[in-house]
Amino acid sequence: MWPDLLRKAKEGGLDTIESYIFWNGHEPRRREYYFEGNYDVIRFFKEIQNAGLYAILRIGPYVCAEWDYGGVPAWLRKIPGMEFRTNNQQWKDEMANFTTLIVDMIKKERLFAPQGGPIILAQIENEYEFVMGTGDAGKEYIKWCAKFAESLNVGLPWIMCQQSDAPQPMINTCNGYYCDNFTPNNPNSPKFWTENWLGWFKAWGNPDRHRPAEDLAFAVARFYQSKGTLQNYYMYHGGTNFGRTPGGPYITTSYDYDAPLDEYGNIKQPKWGHLKELHAALKLMEKSLTYGEVNNTDFGNGAAATKFSYNATVSGCFLSNTNQYFDATLEYQGTKYFLPAWSVSILPDCKQEVYNTARVTTQTSIMVKKPNKADDEASDLKWSWRPETLGSSVRGLGGNFTENKLLEQITTAVDESDYLWYMTSVDITHKQEMTLRVSTTGHVLHAFVNGQLVGSQYGPNGNLAFVFERTAKFKAGKNHISLLSVTVGLQHIGVHYELDPAGIVGGPVQLIGGNITIDLSTNAWSYKIGLDGEKTKVYLDNPDRKWYSGMIPTQRPFTWYKTTFETPLGLDPVVVDLLGMGKGAAWVNGNSIGRFWPNYTASADGCNGCDYEGEYKAEEKCQTGCGEPSQRWYHVPRSFLKPGEPNTLVLFEEAGGDPAQVDFQTVTVGTACSTAEPGKTLNLSCQGGRTISNIDFASLGDPKGTCGSYQKGGCESDEVYSLISEECVGKESCSIQIGENLLGKGNCSNTSSKSLVVQATC
User: Fold this and answer.
1) Closest Cα partner for 742 from 712, 714, 722, 713?
2) Each residue of 629-638: pLDDT tens digit?
3) Contact call for residues 111 and 117 (beta carbons, < 8 A)
4) DSSP codes joined into one string, 668-681
5) Of the residues 94, 125, 127, 263, which is catalytic?
6) Residue 718: what pLDDT?
7) Angle 576-579-585 (CA atoms, 0-180°, nearest 5)?
8) DSSP string across 137-176
9) Which residues, at least 6 apart from 759, have a Cβ–Cβ distance to it below 8 Å?
10) Is the peptide bond before 678 cis (omega within 30 degrees of 0)?
11) What angle do CA 570, 571, 574 make, to 5 degrees?
12) What is the pLDDT of residue 633?
């Protein structure tokens, strides 16, 4: 997908691509390195160069990014004396080893700008100020980071984001929704915005967060109006957290982030197009912004003008209205300008407005899921199944080692699996019912007594630690207790976040019957990492492996399901709808497409509409999906598929689900809407080779509603409708000049100042 994503980014007006380097992906075990496939960092930067773009290398190597453990390998916890991200020699040694490795690889391939490569900036550490504290250790560590970075001799400036005391010559930068008021700690440093959060990530149980295109464009324009130098979108493409890469805990597999290029690589309109027009307007002022002298005029009540003067003939202006409640009319240099509330106008020649952040004229696309229309594809998938082999584990057998205490899960499993078995036995004098009580730090627990599942529980709404209590039958003599603890992504942020525990560390684990409490916390506990199906790689095709057909069990925990399907026709991105499944993981042709948890429903509250005016806060407005599955559809990249051959989908169901509703679909533009003022051009387009099948709505004026739900209220002329239909229907895209040929049609009056609004079906 990389070349296509880079092409769309460049078409959107970007000139630079910024990327983290994920330490735990590249060094999964100490001194064992991996740079293949999605982790081929050299290939990635060469693709950037081939696309004619620059690059920013954010090594970190701590990256946050809602990534598992913040991108830091869990095996570091096994090193005696290790403390993450502080003036700790063990940490500095390992950090230096990995960072040097990356820099040497980049140098060898001549990818730094002084070598003729695309990389123009490099970053060391990441948002450290949030966690450094007030002691000397943090201050000494950040000084060490600066000296170490300089010692690598990359020939580039180094940046430290969110680090107001970054030592020179480090350039401190800003991250956030708005950075116009940011000032570097050195007056000679350029003003960099390394993360403009253009949406927000999603967690299991949360609705989808959206940031309006108007507010995003406003923030960017205000930044450059305030003498900004470099601005980076986080994320321009967020993509998918394949495998076990999501952090959190409880970060979803989707990392769409409401980005201009959505999770699947589709162009998200109007955000992509509105930003493209902004970028073009800004670059018309390139000389003025780069070399110009700045003069500000304050009109009061949030209205202001900023003029960048390069010489007597070259200048560019911004007119801004930061009042979120009231529009403004400004008279500037003898001309009046109308500014909607919370907006910025760009005048590249300080005379004619070419762009206003609040006026969206680009297409709005409503994306839809289309059924799989592959040749001979049956309407229902044919399933087979097999149970996860639990026998030895639930009988306390097959442990890797034994300890007389309850261990912490991360340091025990070293992030090799989400699953860790805690197994013990206890002698009971007589047959009886007892309550099994387990105190766990999370995230999920399945409890077995004498081979039988007695209950499951997870920590909801971010309350990861909980107490599990279930009544179970115990026999006279030896009884086996097996506790399967499950993580759902490791903590990725916070002060000494590596010390946040997971699993049943310390317990207690107790049996309660009548007036008797038996504490099992110091019993002999046997430990086993992972599931049998993980170790034997059930998700890979193996003709010798037994699968069962016929009656398919449903709502059965710890079950593997398998089916085959044809590659969906066309070029549109492919998703699998896992509605009906519980919690688990999925593979297509042996490639992990991530964890699934569609029966975890997003909270019912918070979806209260969306207004772009005023500062954006992800949890307060512009949310959708309340009361719906946190994530229902899962991305299947077409590169995972085999055209013309059967593809295999394997699901591991941990909690109990029904695969009957599982379905493959494609994602494309279903409805396209656009508006244009007189003298401008209206553009409509579908994607993936699809054509416009119908014009649903056309109006001159101010119709009510929004794309997908317009209501008559302007001037709906049959002649205008027919002209647009003739121009657009049957084509992948069309462009219509809004001139007298349209404005004079029909019985519409006073249309000379009205916009044309069109809605089409793809």
Assistant:
1) 722
2) 999 999 999 9
3) yes
4) EEEEEEEEE-TTSE
5) 127
6) 82
7) 65
8) HHHHHHHHHHHHHHHT--SS-EEEET-TTPPTTPEEEEEE
9) 671, 672, 673, 695, 696, 697, 698, 707, 708, 710
10) no
11) 95
12) 98
Enter the DSSP assignment of 567.
P
pLDDT of residue 312: 85
- Residue 26 near residue 40, CB atoms below 8 Å: no
Give the C-alpha distances (Å, rounded to integers) separating 755 from 43, 119, 738, 750. 46, 44, 8, 11
* Interstrand relation of 335-339 and 328-332 (parallel, antiparallel or unpaired): antiparallel
CA distances from 496 to 114, 133, 251, 432, 732 (A): 37, 11, 19, 45, 53
User: What residue spans of 166-293 are helical by DSSP H?
Assistant: 213-225, 271-283, 286-291
Looking at residue 286, what is its pLDDT? 96
Q: What is the dihedral of CA 69, 487, 503, 654, to 10 degrees?
A: -170
Judge if pTM exceeds 0.85: yes
The closest alpha carbon to 91, from 498, 502, 422, 446, belongs to 498
CA 306 to chain centre: 35
474's tokens: 């115990």
Give per-residue burial for 288-319: e unless 16+ CB within 10 Å, then b.
bbeebeeeeeebeebbbbbbbbbeeebbbbbb
Residue 732 annotated among the catalytic residues of the structure = no
Mean pLDDT by 10 residues, the chain (762 residues): 98 98 98 97 98 98 98 98 97 98 98 98 97 91 98 98 97 98 97 97 96 98 98 98 97 98 98 98 97 97 97 94 98 97 98 97 96 69 97 94 98 98 97 98 97 96 93 97 98 96 98 95 98 97 92 98 95 97 98 97 92 95 96 98 94 98 96 91 93 93 85 77 93 89 60 78 96
Active-site residue (options: 47, 195, 277, 566): 195
Instruction: Name 480's bridge partners.
Output: 425
Q: Distances from the Cα of 155 to the Cαs of 56, 144, 170, in angstroms?
A: 13, 19, 13
Q: Looking at residue 375, what is its pLDDT?
A: 52
What DSSP state is assigned to residue 67? B
Whether residue 177 contacts residue 197, with contact meaning beta carbons closer than 8 Å, is answered with yes
Burial of 325: CB neighbours in 10 Å, binned 0-12, 13-18, 19+: exposed
Do the Cβ atoms of 571 and 688 come closer than 8 Å? yes
Cis peptide before 270 (omega within 30 of 0): yes
Give alpha helix (H) positions in 503-577. Answer: 532-535
195 is catalytic: yes
